[in-house]
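Example 281, ligand nicotinamide-adenine-dinucleotide.
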Amino acid sequence: MSYNLLKGKRGIIFGALNDMSIAWKVAERAVEEGAIITLTNTPIAVRMGDVSELSQKLNAEVIPADATSVEDLEEVFAKSMEILGGKIDFVLHSIGMSPNVRKKRTYDDLDYDLLNKTLDISAISFHKMIQVAKKMDAISEGGSIVALSYVAAQRTLYGYNDMADAKSMLESIARSFGYIYGREKRVRVNTISQSPTMTTAGSGVKGMDKLLDFSERMSPLGNASADECAGYCITLFSDLTKKVTMQNLFHDGGFSSMGMSLRAMSQYEKSFDDEGNEILG
Ligand SMILES: NC(=O)c1ccc[n+]([C@@H]2O[C@H](COP(=O)([O-])OP(=O)(O)OC[C@H]3O[C@@H](n4cnc5c(N)ncnc54)[C@H](O)[C@@H]3O)[C@@H](O)[C@H]2O)c1
């Protein structure tokens, strides 16, 4: 169902790779809500992924760009304004990648060049994106910028590795830039902390299937899906949230506020024998 929440708005969606991507769902939902958009991803993702399928479906042009390159980002904003016919009203940063995770380096054996890449791709690209947009005055007054985060920024979750550090930085950038951009142009900057979701990036996390199951059982409302995340993004792009900025907003069915659930407690009890020893295997 469409509420026309983004009628007449122009947006840029970074990070749609295939139909599992959260950005893919956000792009579909944004157009459904009346927006016109451009899509962007790395040249290799554009070649190897299904972005052109989405582009055709939504009548949205694809601008290949590496989000760690300031030059590429300048081109994304310049071309988007040209194609869409004016300043941009909303931007989604849906980008994450850890070469350390890919190379199976554990957190106590990180490669530091790879850590720099993790931070550049997954967090600093957000700063670059906002700085480029601000210098080009590419975002309209009252516009909205959203990036996707995860609760590992606040809490330690086994296997999330150096992406936890990247997410902490990402959320900090939203606060620091949110202050400056809000004060000067009333532009909102927020992060949405999303439930674990089975996507290409998500499936790279060690033990993802167990993490998904655990948080599904621990959250009173269950895990939030990519479609539901798209719905939440739309509210932040819309005029209904004009005074929401510098926030990390949990979209996780309640997971981040839970300590112990009834389900988890009964499951926990089953892992001990009558003498209180752990039942292994
Ligand atoms: N899947 C989850 O469990 C989950 C949970 C919370 C937050 N998130 C976050 O959501 C965002 C989107 O991830 P997703 O789960 O939809 O996976 P995805 O793999 O579909 O999307 C990740 C995207 O990042 C893009 N990317 C990588 N390097 C890039 C670069 N240098 N420049 C531009 N783009 C680049 C990829 O091409 C891909 O499109 C990420 O920030 C991720 O950390 C995911």
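Summary: Residues 15, 17, 21-23, 41-42, 45, 66-68, 94-97, 121, 148-150, 194, 196-197, 199-202 surround nicotinamide-adenine-dinucleotide (CB under 6 Å).
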